[in-house]
Design brief:
heterodimer, A: about 525 residues, alpha+beta, FAD/NAD(P)-binding domain, Polyamine Oxidase, Chain A, domain 2, de novo design (two linked rop proteins), 3 domains, 5-stranded parallel sheet, 4-stranded mixed sheet, about 30% helix, B: about 210 residues, mainly alpha, Cytochrome Bc1 Complex, Chain D, domain 2, 9 helices, about 50% helix
Chain lengths: ~525, ~210
Amino acid sequence: MTNSVSRREFLNLLGAYGGSSAVLSAGAALGLMPLASQATEISLSNQSSNGKSVAILGTGISALVTAWELTKAGYNCTVLEASHRAGGRIFTVRSGTVIDEIGNYQRCDWDDEPHLYFNAGAARIPSIHNSVLSYCKELGVELQVFANESKTGWVQDDAMNGGKPVRNTDYSSSMTGFISEMLAKSLSAEEMDSSLTESESEILLGMLRSFGDLDEDMLYRGSVRAGYRSGGFLDHGSKKDVIALRDLLKTRLANNVMTTTQEGSGSGPLLMQPVGGMDRIIYAFANRLGARIEFRSPVTAVMVNNNGVEIAYEQEGVPKSLKVDYCFNCIPSHLMSGIPNNFPMEYIEALNYIRRGKAYKAAFQAKERFWEKENIYGGISWINAPIRQIWYPPHGIHKEKGVVLSAYNFGGANFTEMTQEQRIENFISSGEKIHPNYRQMVEKPITIAWHRMNHMLGCAPRWSRSRGGWSEHEEQMYTTIRQPVNGRHYLIGDQSTQHSAWMESAIQSAHYALADFDQRVRAEEA
Amino acid sequence: MKRFITLAALFFSAHFTFVVNAADVGSPADMSDRYCTTCHGAKGEGNIAVQAPRLAGMEGWYLQRQLENFREGIRGTHTDDLQGIAMQSMAAKLTDASIADIVSWVGAWEFVAADVTIEGNVNRGRSAYQICASCHGTNAEGNEALGAPALAGQNDWYLLTQINNFRAGIRGTHPDDSFGAQMLAMSATLRDDQAITNVVSYINTLQK
């Protein structure tokens, strides 16, 4: 049986997606897509003499950036944090870390080694997130390259290959080959010839041949890119069997496998992480802010008036209060809904509208770096199960142990409702489908259900409720919460952006608020 | 010598905490079970965004019974009771002493009537409420002797959810939930969504 794709099969498929003209017109957008985020920079007027005071609520990265910039500019800052730790959803777990999940208190007791850590929230820094990178540089946070993909990682779906995992490279080489073959066939058709010049066709066909590793007949008959069945060094290598297109299409995991290294809003072949854990960024800010941060100080009321903002909070159960000129607030909107305030109705409506994300992660200390014995040194295995992904640490190569991310699900409600024991059993039984000795490797598992974390109760905020994009009403509410209340209270954090879940968004929200604030201060002084 | 080591350890650990770990002042010893305000609001006034009801003003005996019900899995174990499940996993860890501590802590919070968010036909609600009044009181002030909590002042969206949960058998079906079973039976007298909205709208007019 030949595994190549019939022309009729392909043209039908293409027709279903709008035909060649649609493909070509989509192609016209090439080169027009903006890639890098605009680095936002902030330059506040120096206020060392006027003694203006600012309260910053929460210690997510937007709050720390705000406090740091305002402190540098000479403002008198007080940062109130409800929890025992700073960072919000930038949270690294290592030996001794307390995981303050409501109803599921955990204390991590992994071996105390610098490479044995786990980024339970933010974990990857794309090359195009300029504001994050710029603070890492300013604060001296050492970065290293993070491997987001390993072609030796696995793809597993019970519906494919009898449930046996296949290597990412086997899957992606075959898929790339078939896609190239299909396009090459379409190009030779007369109806396509009219759309491209002879020279354009030649260049495109040459690229497709190379992209898909097609043979002289422009057919995909396997590629050494999937690795050799045998040989390859002392002896000639022999190619592996091709996985038939129909078999590749038994899983939807192609959506992940084929796109992990696409540069864009948050992915890419080259990502970064701070050496030792993402919270190194938090420590860098927190160490500079020092005693300006007051921990275990939950806010109990925020009242904005004509001259400033009055904040009520508690420390060890004792009510305290703070009167400041301005307030920047990154408390999650769904928690702010439960804190007495005097915000305008439409502002409260917007706060109540934003939904809380349900992301879930799990991790364990592996007795041995079993993945290295399978030629994996980083990257992700994709699995069609609630755990979705397994990440292998790109750091600590060849050491005795490592920390494996054993689940990462963006809509992790099902995990949230499980007991700790059920969560652990769930991730082990899924992981066993990829790594036969998985269960024996698991030491000291931990789970992170962001929906239940104390003082968080959610992961990345979700604004839009339809797949079709933001409604007019949602855009209006977004405009509302980006305006300061009375020119005194600013809502910051990724909840005040249209691209949540990234540190870059949170930082840019802080810069946006600070720019507005600075303008007002300058206007007052003029 | 031993004393010296202890002092040195103290010095170095404090030093480490200050310099390297300024972002984390946590230690397991100082965690308590007083988690309530994260979900139920900074002053226990309820939080619609996470669907957690008002606790401020709730009767101590009722709060204690519900915490015990959650802890024993009598409430919050039905698969469709998403908020109940969240509460159940919290309460499952509570000791009798923690429950007593929480009840006394919450008892000190000031009661402020909840905002009205639901509008229905108050007149129709009044007549439907007459059945409810036999247990919950004419002014929805509650009746400890009958095990019926106050309804006045509670978040109306929460009352709506709970009546719907009783009607759907999401609450009140556990064999050990005798008060819940009674409420489940009574909730059947409210025939449709409009009837529930009406009765909640009437409760909104009552003063605790």
